[in-house]
Every structure is written in structure tokens, then in C-alpha cells.
Write a structure and sequence with these properties.
It contains 22 helices and no strands. By secondary structure, the protein is mainly alpha-helical. The longest helix has 34 residues.
């Protein structure tokens, strides 16, 4: 426990106490880091030379091109939240699936996945779907617990589906490509949507009264007008998804450029729905500025903390503690996911990404764990932070827009089955890493035993004379066989004879 001194564990405990007490995370991290830096200097456990790197690390944060993608994707989500696209998608797909039991729930899950692929923010998805779908689901007899649970869970799919902000932050913290992180998240995203749809299907067979079909007067007829309405919402979404993810996967744009393209596409969609106003842009810019400044301040505080923590061999202390966990890499992953699951009761996903991940990544790498797999797995786990009571943000968002007839206890109890399904996905990804790594570009496999290095012999028949390379003979050098007039380099001594002393 104290192989590397008492200061690293004491520093870690102090950080937890500061945050549990309610101080802002960014200032808690910076305060603990600088305070223990001073203590370490006086007790000779920390070299002052480490602090000289602090200004450069802070400058590296504010000049990081990768983090510039965060305000772009945030602004895109804020615009799409208010541009009317979600309303068209929900209304069209709700009527399209309305004839089957659970049709509205199917529509919410599918639209939640689409919104996740074009907005990347949980709040936008949960609030939009809650305002539009929840009253209709309650009106036509859906169980309040099921209705609130499916809306909250479908909104949190956004955390895993690219272009998730969490994946961008994790890519930065793990030192990996955002494109690879997005590719790795494709498989788990489809699995999560499939698990949710399968649950609704089973529920419609076991308890059809909880998920009734829409009556004919509510869903209308399946005609050309309805199909065109659905396509009118789908096609702009697909175009926007290609602008963001297609250009990124094809290597046509960096994450920052893909985010900028997404902003242009979101503004075009808002203009097409006649919702593009100065107030809309101003609200989007305000929320973007709020989230971006929060991320930067947390990063600066985390940098102060991690610099001092590493200077006191804190990273070696963490590695020493976790590398001895029984079960090897699988045991480590199970422990880490349980730890993060309970940590998410108290910390936001940004705080977990900036504080905990830098401590765990070196241990994962030393155990031979693929960091893309590790990052996507942590991202899936962190989506549960939006769902589990009592601090799940998706539940708070839903409570803010739900009718008073819906009890808070119903919202909390309705989230539990969906939370269990998210944990099932965590277990699947732990024991089936190919669900992540299958989509990644594989390096060509080379059999080292089949490699042969052949060095051509100089001269003819394996002789020891040097090749002439078509050059004229040197003074005193014998003529080279097959070389015309001889060979060698001009001015080079004849090494085939003993030296002559004149």
C-alpha cells in the first residue's frame, strides 16, 4: 500500500474528500495538486522541476486541435435540438410502427439512435423525445415506468454512438485516434440498440397491455404521404451523418473539420425547417460556451493534479495496486468497470475521463489490453451514469419535462431494467472484444520465421573482390572480372595488398 510513500494515497484520498464535500471539480483538482506539490517539495518527495512543465502542459490543452471538435459537436447538437428534425422523425416513425404492439417504444429507440448519430448529446435527445413522445405514450396506455425508461435509455445511447463527445475526450486521454475510437464503437452501438428492441419485443409478447398498439385514428393509414414524411426526416439525417462520420471514416476530414461540417449541416437543416433565427443561434452558442469552458477548466485542474501525482510516483502506485488483481486482464477489466460504475454515482463522465482514465490507461497497456477496446468499454460503462438513481442526469432531464401525474419513483424504477441491459452490454464487450476490434483496420500479420535477408556476394563466384559499379580502375587495383576496365571508387586504396611504406 505504501511502497511508494504515504503521499500518493493521501493525495488520492484528499481529492475524493474535496469533491464529495461539494467543491467545484476543476478547483478541487488544482488545489489538491498544488498543495501536495508544496508538501512534496518540503518533504523531498517531489522535485520542483516538475512544476516547470505546468505552463507548457496548460498551453498544450488550449492549443489542442482535437479538443476543438468539442465546441463544434456541442453547437451542432444545440442547433439540432431546436430545429424540428426530431419532431418529424418521431411523428413519422411513431405512425409507421404504431400498428404493432410496442410500436411507439420501437420508434423512440430508433429515433434515439439516429439523434445520437447526429447530435452527440444526451440532454438534447432525452428532452426532445420526452416532450414529444411521453404524453402520447401515456395517453394511449403505456406503463409510466416503461415509457420513462425507454425514453431515458434511448437518449443515453448517444454516449456510445459516434460522434459522442465522450469518445472524443477518451481518445484524447488515451492518445488514440478519434476515428479508430468511433469505428470501435460501431459494434457496441448496434448491440445496444438490438438489446433494447429485443426487450420491447419480448415485453410485447409477455405483457402486451403495457405496450399497446396505436388505434387506427391515431396512426392513420400507411400511404404514400406517411412514407414521404418518414423519408423527409430520414434523408436529411443520413446526409448529416455522412457529413460528420462519413468524411471522418473515409479520411476526408479530421474530427475538428467533421464537426465544422456538422455545424454547417445543422444550420442548413434549421433553415430548411424555417427555425433558423438569431435567438436559436445565440442559445446554441451560450450552451456551447458553457460546456466548452467547463471542459477546459476541468482539464487544467486535472493537469495540475496528474503532474504532481506522477511526480510522486502515484502512477506507479496505482499500477502496483491494480496489476496484482487476480484474473489477469479480464479480472482487471471487471474490477475497473465495477469501480467506475459506483464512481459514476458521484462524478460526471467528464470528471471520470479526466481524472480516473489517465491513472488506469498505463496499467491497461502494461497488461496488453487494446486501448481502443478499453476506451469503448469505459464509454459504455459511463453511459450508466445517466441512468442510475439518485444522480442520473437523464432522469433529471426527464423529470423536468414529465407531467406531474408521473411520479419520480416511477421514473427511477423504470430506469432499472434499462440499466441492467446496459450492464449486460458491458459484460458482452468484456468477454467478446471482437465486437469492438472487428471494425478497426488491422495491421498486416508478418511471420518473422519466413523472413530471409539475402546479401549479394561481391565479385564472381562468391569471390572477395569489390564490385566496380562501372567506374574506372583505381591506381594499383587489379581489373575487376566482368567489370570492363576495373572497378572501385576513385582514390580508394587497394585493400587486397599489404600496405607499402615508402
Amino acid at each position: 500500500m505504501f511502497e511508494y510513500g504515504i503521499l500518493p494515497p493521501l493525495m488520492f484520498v484528499s481529492m475524493v474528500i474535496f469533491m464529495l464535500y461539494g467543491f467545484p471539480v476543476a478547483f478541487s483538482l488544482a488545489t489538491v495538486g498544488l498543495m501536495f506539490g508544496v508538501i512534496g517539495i518540503f518533504t523531498e518527495h517531489f522535485s520542483p522541476a516538475f512544476l516547470q512543465a505546468l505552463p507548457l502542459r496548460i498551453f498544450g490543452i488550449v492549443s489542442n486541435d482535437l479538443l476543438l471538435a468539442i465546441p463544434f459537436f456541442t453547437f451542432m447538437g444545440a442547433i439540432l435540438e431546436r430545429c424540428g428534425l426530431a419532431e418529424d422523425l418521431l411523428e413519422g416513425t411513431g405512425k409507421l410502427f404504431g400498428a404493432v404492439p410496442g410500436g411507439l417504444a420501437y420508434a423512440v429507440i430508433v429515433v434515439g439512435a439516429i439523434l445520437g448519430a447526429i447530435t452527440g448529446t444526451v440532454a438534447a435527445s432525452v428532452i426532445t423525445m420526452g416532450v414529444i413522445s411521453l404524453p402520447i405514450m401515456l395517453k394511449y396506455g403505456y406503463s409510466p415506468r416503461l415509457a420513462t425508461g425507454v425514453i431515458a435509455a434511448s437518449g443515453t445511447i448517444t454516449q456510445v454512438i459516434p460522434p459522442s463527445l465522450v469518445l472524443i475526450v477518451l481518445a484524447d486521454q488515451l492518445g488514440k485516434s478519434v476515428g479508430d475510437m468511433y469505428l470501435g464503437a460501431i459494434g457496441p452501438s448496434f448491440l445496444q440498440v438490438g438489446i433494447f428492441l429485443l426487450f420491447i419485443f419480448i415485453l410485447s409478447l409477455v405483457r402486451p397491455k403495457d405496450v399497446p398498439a396505436l388505434p387506427p385514428e391515431a396512426r392513420g393509414e400507411l400511404n404514400r404521404a406517411l412514407v414521404l414524411k418518414v423519408l423527409g426526416g430520414m434523408i436529411p439525417s443520413i446526409v448529416l451523418i455522412f457529413l460528420v462520420l462519413g468524411t471522418l471514416f473515409l479520411g476526408l476530414a479530421t474530427p475538428t473539420e467533421a464537426g465544422a461540417l456538422g455545424v454547417v449541416g445543422a444550420l442548413a437543416l434549421a433553415a430548411g425547417h424555417r427555425r433558423l433565427t438569431w435567438d436559436l443561434v445565440k442559445q446554441g452558442m451560450h450552451s456551447t460556451m458553457h460546456i466548452t469552458s467547463m471542459v477546459v477548466f476541468i482539464l487544467v485542474g486535472a493537469t495540475c493534479f496528474s503532474l504532481v501525482f506522477q511526480g510522486m510516483d502515484g502512477s506507479l502506485w496505482i499500477e502496483h495496486l491494480l496489476s496484482g488483481i487476480p484474473g489477469g486482464p479480464i479480472g482487471f477489466l471487471i474490477f475497473v468497470n465495477i469501480f467506475i460504475f459506483f464512481l459514476a454515482f458521484f462524478l460526471d463522465f467528464f470528471e471520470i475521463a479526466f481524472i480516473v482514465i489517465p491513472m488506469l490507461a498505463p496499467v491497461a497497456q502494461s497488461l496488453g489490453i487494446d486501448l481502443i477496446w478499453f476506451g469503448v468499454l469505459i464509454c459504455i460503462n459511463m453511459q450508466t451514469s445517466f441512468m442510475h438513481p439518485p444522480f442520473g442526469f437523464a432522469l433529471f432531464y426527464l423529470r423536468s419535462i414529465a407531467p406531474r401525474s408521473v411520479k419520480t419513483s416511477d421514473i427511477y424504477m423504470g430506469a432499472i431494467p434499462w440499466l441492467g441491459m446496459q450492464l449486460i452490454l458491458v459484460a458482452i464487450v468484456i468477454f467478446w472484444p471482437e465486437s469492438v476490434t472487428y471494425w478497426l483496420d488491422k495491421a498486416p500479420e508478418v511471420d518473422l520465421n519466413s523472413i530471409k535477408i539475402e546479401v549479394p556476394a561481391f565479385g564472381n563466384q562468391g569471390g572477395n573482390t569489390m564490385p566496380n559499379f562501372g567506374l574506372p580502375p583505381m591506381d594499383g587495383a587489379p581489373a575487376q572480372p566482368g567489370g570492363g576496365q576495373g572497378g572501385g571508387l576513385p582514390g580508394m586504396p587497394n585493400l587486397s595488398e599489404p600496405p607499402k611504406i615508402q
